[in-house]
Specification:
The protein is of the alpha/beta class. Helices cover 26% and strands 24% of the residues. It contains eleven helices and 18 strands. The protein has an eight-stranded parallel β-barrel, surrounded by four helices. An eight-stranded antiparallel β-sheet has the order 11-14-17-16-15-18-13-12, with helices on one face. A hairpin with a 2-residue loop joins strand 16 and strand 17 (386-391).
């Protein structure tokens, strides 16, 4: 039942914690500082030195869905999802057999079934119980402290002692991004916790859901996704990668996630260093539904489009960053990531505030060219090394620019 921690992570009982007063200005300062250190992020996904881990070829990018029943696998596969992250009360042999038939990869808690199953080949990572950094439920609606960081590191070592051929994943709670969130109980504000907790782990993940949040300073502030990724990236050691778990449904029944907001969250995560994306698709509107995303056809369509783009760009996303190739001038901060493949430069950009702006992107070593704006059916002229474009609030633009010669 350990996986049920995810289900109750935003429940009314946790909402009883007092709200903190984190200043939006402090968040913004943190984001600006993170922007200057993106060159330090972990290398893009390369499979890590695990013989039974995820594929190591550059054309693979992990795209997961959180805690779903295997019969839903065909629908998720059609959306471009390749990994089930978490299995209810599992893994069981029946779950693994169903997912093996669908060619779906699995991240699961470690047990004897998973270690010995004839279908264990689809298990590509072991995971710890969800959100160990949060206050832990002790029964009767009460919460105790977070799981000690040293204990989390010990559990990673224990998993590897049983099977070192697969990476270990830890998914932390929203305190990674919203650093003063009181849902961590007496552990609230302890950011040094993560430096110890991530030791011996391989995939570092976290979740925060700004659209669905009931915390005023977070509500609607999509940049918290970027803040959380940046906070994990700066802690990651060589060989550790960072994933982000993102909202897709109406966690606030009165305010479902919009397609453009989901797109912004995904690209904020990728641009700030995430090398894996997981969609959280549960919903409690009217009644609980584990596959609540299917209540929202427009979000299903958007997830499908996003995943198609990620899959098509996987070799580029998995290639090294090119720091120092671009300088941005705009009234609204614009986060960028620059990649190169053969004779094309790729610039991925996202506005970090919910207000429009015109941005001037100064490109080193490119004088005059035409930038194709992927998925938008248009191009933008580059003259004298400057690409000028308009960004709506939280807008995403993906540019492909030919390199002369």
């Amino acid at each position: 039942m350990a996986m049920l921690g995810r289900v109750f992570s935003d429940s009314a009982s946790k909402r009883s914690f007092a709200l903190d007063l984190l200043s939006p200005a402090l968040l913004f300062l943190g984001l600006m500082q993170a922007e200057t250190t993106l060159a330090d992020r972990p290398a893009a996904w390369a499979g890590a030195p695990h013989t039974n881990g995820f594929p190591s070829d550059s054309g693979f990018f992990p795209i997961g869905v959180w805690l779903q029943s295997p019969p839903n696998a065909p629908r998720y596969k059609a959306m471009g999802i390749n990994t089930f992250v978490g299995l209810w009360q599992g893994p069981t042999e029946a779950q693994l057999a169903d997912l093996a038939k669908q060619g779906m990869y699995v991240v699961a808690e470690q047990n004897d079934v998973g270690l010995n199953s004839i279908n264990r080949g689809i298990i590509k990572s072991w995971m710890q119980a969800d959100e160990p950094d949060n206050a832990q439920i002790t029964g009767l609606g009460r919460y105790g402290p977070c799981i000690p960081a040293a204990e989390i590191a010990r559990r990673s070592r224990a998993m590897k002692a049983r099977d070192a051929s697969r990476p270990v994943m830890i998914n932390f709670g929203r305190g990674v991004a919203d650093t003063s969130w009181p849902g961590r109980g007496i552990c609230t504000g302890d950011q040094d916790y993560y430096d110890t907790a991530i030791k011996s782990a391989d995939i570092l993940s976290f979740d925060i859901y700004p659209v669905g949040s009931d915390t005023p300073h977070v509500k609607g502030r999509l940049e918290y996704v970027a803040q959380g990724v940046a906070n994990l990236v700066k802690r990651a050691a060589p060989g550790q990668t960072v994933w982000a778990v993102l909202e897709t449904t109406a966690l606030d029944p009165a305010r479902p996630v919009r397609a453009e907001e989901l797109r912004a969250e995904v690209w904020m995560a990728l641009i700030h260093g995430a090398t894996g994306i997981v969609y959280f698709v549960h919903e409690w509107a009217n009644s609980f539904r584990e596959d609540g995303i299917f209540r929202h056809p427009e979000i299903v369509d958007e997830v499908t489009r996003i995943n198609q783009t990620i899959a098509s760009l996987a070799p580029i996303l998995n290639s090294p960053d090119l720091p120092g190739r671009i300088a941005v001038s705009a009234l609204v901060p614009i986060a960028t990531m620059v990649k190169q493949q053969e004779h094309a430069l790729y610039v991925f950009a996202v506005a970090m505030q919910n207000q429009p702006s015109t941005a001037r992107l100064a490109l080193r070593e490119i004088h005059d060219a035409e930038a194709v704006v992927l998925e938008e059916g248009r191009s933008v002229a580059i003259r004298d090394g400057i690409l000028e474009d308009t960004f709506g609030g939280y807008a995403v633009h993906l540019y492909k620019i030919p390199i002369p010669g």
